[in-house]
Amino acid sequence: AARIIQNMDPTADPCQDFYQYACGGWLNRHVIPETSSRYSIFDILRDELEIILKGVLETSDQGDREAFQKAKILYKSCMNESLIEQRDSLPLLEALRMVGDWPVASADWSKTKEPSWSMEENLSIMNSRFNKRVLIDMFVWNDDRDSSRHIIYIDQPSLGMPSRDYYFNGGNYQRVREAYLQFMITIAKMIREDKNVSRDDSFVQEEMAKVMELETEIAN
After folding, report:
1. Which of 154, 157, 128 minimizes the C-alpha distance to 140?
2. What region holds the Peptidase M13 N-terminal domain (predicted)?
C-alpha cells in the first residue's frame, strides 16, 4: 500500500488527469534507462533479483547440490571472456558440423553433405541439443484434457524476428528487416572466412535472400 501511494500524485485532480494522479509519483522518481524500452516495477524487481543471483553464483560451490553446481559452472563459463575470445568461432563451427554444416558456408555442400543429410534427424538434434525449434515446434507438456499425464505437443515455431509484422510492414519494420538480412549476410561471410572458404559475396547475398524469402513465406 505504501508503495502504491508513493507512486501516486495526490496533488493532481483525478477528474482532470487520472494518469498523473495514479502514476505521477512514479514518473517523477524514475527515468527510462537508455538501454531499455520501458521501465516498471517488474524491471526493478528483476534487476534486484539479478544482483542477488550474482552474489549466489559467485560463492564457493563446495557442498552444493548438483543443480547449483551446474548453474555456477555455467555462470563461470559465461564470465570467462578470455577463453571465449581464445575459442573464437570454434563452438559455432562445431555446432554447424553437428547439424550437417551450412550450405552457404561450404564450397561443395550439395556433393559432400546433401546425399546423407536428413531433415528429420537434424531437426531433432537442433531441438534436443540446442533447444532450437526450426520449422516445427515440438515439446512435452501437461495434457489439457487430463492434467495427470503429459503428452507431445506439435505447434508452429517462433520466427527469426519478433512477429510477422516485421516481414510485411514498412517504416521502422522495413529498416529492421534490412538490418536483419544484412546481419545474416555478415555472419555467413564471417563463417566462410573462418572455414577458409573462398570469398563469394554475390553467392552469399543470393542465398541469404532466399532464406529471407523462406522466412517471409513461413510468417505468411
Report:
1. 154
2. 14-220
DSSP 140: E
Q: For position 38, what pLDDT does the model report?
A: 86
Judge whether 203 and 196 are in contact, CB under 8 Å: no
Cα separation of 13 and 96, whole Å? 61
Strands 137-143, 146-155: pairing is antiparallel
The reported pLDDT for the residue numbered 80 is 94
- Name the DSSP class of 147: E
Please give the full DSSP string across 18-82, using - where no structure is assigned: HHHHHHHHHHHH----TT-S---HHHHHHHHHHHHHHHHHTS--TT--HHHHHHHHHHHHHH-HH
pTM for this model (two decimals)? 0.70
CA–CA dist 76, 116 (Å, integer) = 38
CA distances from 154 to 28, 127, 167, 219, 220 (A): 47, 12, 24, 17, 19
Kindly list the averaged pLDDT for each block of 10 residues, start to end, along the chain of length 220: 92 96 93 88 92 93 88 93 93 93 91 92 90 88 95 91 93 95 96 92 95 94
CB 8 within 8 A of CB 23: yes
CA–CA distance, 18 with 20 (Å, rounded to integer):
5
